[in-house]
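seq as requested:
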Amino acid sequence: MNRLKLVLPTPEYEEKLMDYKREFIENGDSMDGSAGLNNAETFEEWYSVFLDNLKEETVRKGLVPATTYMAISTDNGRLIGMIDIRHILNEYLLNYGGHIGYSIRKSERKQGYATEMLALALKECAKLNIKKVLITCDKENIASVKTMINNGAKIENEIPEGNRITQRYWITLD
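struct tokens:
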């Protein structure tokens, strides 16, 4: 299962990140776990936010400190997915967002990458001393449910959120 490695974004990855963004926009997909890449006009704007959000002292208003990783293929260096680890939870994240958000580009889905990427992110959570990891998803997102369960997640409950139901799963780390 060593098909992926988690890498912190740097300016050298600008082209790969913008290509990742382009694929999500073209497919009309939700780009979760990308630290707002979908909303940034430029790489520089996004990278500035990414750097600020790494530390509590500089985190942007309304957000929590978080580390965003790129999941890079160990075979060909392709950016497969992105995953965001929130170091702490505010009330919204406790109910709806969780510690981790992630996405896999459409052209790379259904190959087990999300399960592997989440397993790698859980190792990073342990380094951050996050012992119980909350991950949430829309009840209809069967792929995400399977990804979480494959990594040992146990459902706690479901919370209505507008016209959807958010499922809350916990993974306890050793």
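Residues 113-127 form the longest helix (15 residues).
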